[in-house]
Design a protein that fits this description.
alpha/beta; about 55% helix; 19 helices; two-stranded antiparallel sheet
């Protein structure tokens, strides 16, 4: 019994013995040492502190070039003030409101609304159309329009606890295709939003080619019904483009100087070909400013010593310069080199030549010959079954016009943009259609009057 009590007491002693309590700090030290060793091993194998992002990525360069204050935006001050006024005075907390931003691609619509919204205390939530399919609570595939409506309602009704902004704004650039095909579905979405929505929405409509997104989804009667505001952004001006490219060039030289070298000549080259698209200009500036590694300056690819703009190329063709060497001569600018620059836009280049070749011609014989050359080149360029024919056609046209214009008229001749033939053709077809319908209506009305006269005569008799 004593032995059992001794065994029991010995079994219970470690829990209450002071000696065990004195040893506990040593155990804690051992555990802390083990923990420190494990943490040191983890820190050696894995970097807990994130490293600085590499500047070799195109997305990082584009992110670094984004404007950080309103003065760096390429949008005019007037349009910035219109957007700011809408955010301050038209948007009311807890009530729905819609703004439509329209304009050509690359005019700074998205950058302006993002920056000005943050300046006025708005947190931006952007809708991006998902590629994968989603299932609802009944394991049924959700339609794209239903997912968009669910996203908008959730974002505009519930705020996040992870930011310090007092308001939220929903940005929609990528419209679901189902709304473009089904206008009634988009109208029902707007009605539902204006019933239960509580945060503003900004729709960005980019004008690309013959896009009629604004007329399809937001006709004038819909805008008047829901009191939707519209702000149209103009293309980027040359002055704003120049200032922005200079600022971005300085950023690239400081952030990625090991792979990019932006010079003033390259900025001027981009400006000569700019069409008001700042996004396209920045991407082109990146690629033409890339440094070529040593030993790869000359390779199998033909590297051009200069980049030729469209207007300069047309000027070299319609105002050719020759070098006389004894009994022979040659062009200062090789026609084949000019043709190699515009292989991808041969139709546009031929249109510019047809619009401007008469500016430097002296005699009617040269004009007749150039007209025949351009007509034949236009016919050959429409042949799509042989890809090599485009290069031959462009070289033939450029060489022919340069050879025939022996003594071009000197002086300043601005290059004119060719008229849009398709628009004129549509106008002519529309006018012809109207005249045709009028002829049918008039003929029917005359025939009806003749029948009425015959009936009246029969009644009288």
């Amino acid at each position: 019994m004593a032995n059992s009590k001794q065994k029991n007491s010995s079994w219970l002693m470690p829990s209450f013995d002071g000696e065990f309590l004195n040893k506990s700090p040593a155990i804690k030290r051992k555990s802390s040492q083990i923990l420190e060793k494990s943490v040191s091993n983890v820190s050696m194998d894995y970097d807990i502190i994130p490293k600085k992002k590499s500047t070799n990525s195109l997305s990082i360069l584009l992110e670094a070039s984004e404007p950080q204050k309103p003065s760096e935006l390429v949008v005019s001050r007037q349009k910035q003030q219109e957007i700011t006024d809408w955010l301050r005075y038209k948007v009311k907390r807890g009530k729905p409101s819609v703004l439509i931003l329209t304009g050509p691609a690359g005019c700074g619509k998205t950058a302006a609304i993002r920056l000005l919204s943050k300046e006025n205390g708005f947190d931006i939530a952007e809708w991006i159309t998902p590629v994968d399919q989603a299932m609802d609570e009944n394991n049924r595939i959700m339609r794209q329009g239903d997912r968009f409506e669910d996203f908008v309602i959730r974002v505009t009704r519930y705020s996040s606890v992870l930011n310090n902004y007092h308001s939220r704004l929903l940005l929609v650039k990528d419209f679901p295709n189902v709304f473009i095909e089904d206008k009634d579905a988009f109208l029902s979405f707007l009605e539902r939003y204006f019933e239960i929505g509580k945060e503003p929405i900004v729709f960005v409509c980019t004008e690309i080619g013959n896009s009629k997104l604004l007329q399809t989804l937001f006709p004038s009667n819909i805008r008047e019904k829901f009191d939707i505001d519209l702000i149209n952004i103009n293309p980027v001006t040359q002055a704003a483009m120049k200032n922005s490219l200079k600022r971005i060039g300085d950023i690239f030289n400081s952030v990625a100087s090991h792979i990019i070298c932006v010079s003033q000549d390259k900025i001027e080259e981009i400006l000569s070909n700019s069409i008001g698209d700042i996004r396209n200009a920045v991407i082109n500036l990146i690629f033409i400013s890339l440094k070529v590694p040593k030993g790869q300056e000359e390779n199998k690819c033909n590297i051009r010593e200069e980049s030729l703009g469209l207007l300069h190329g047309v000027g070299r063709v319609i105002n050719p310069k020759r070098i006389q060497t004894e009994n022979s001569w040659k062009f200062v600018h090789d026609p084949d080199d000019i043709a190699s620059y515009f292989q991808s836009q041969s139709t546009v280049f031929l249109s510019f030549l047809q619009e401007n070749y008469l500016n430097t011609m002296r005699g009617i014989e040269e004009v007749n010959a150039c007209a025949n050359i351009l007509s034949l080149a236009d016919t050959l360029n429409s042949e799509w079954r042989d890809l090599n024919l485009t290069n031959v056609t462009l070289s033939f046209c450029i060489r022919g016009v340069m050879v025939m214009n022996e003594k071009p008229i000197s002086g300043w001749n601005p290059v004119r943009k060719p008229a849009n033939v398709r628009i004129e053709m549509r106008r002519c077809l529309a006018a012809a259609e109207v005249r045709w319908y009028e002829s049918i209506i008039n003929s029917k009305s005359k025939h009806t009057e003749e029948l009425l006269d015959i009936d009246m005569e029969a009644i009288i008799e």
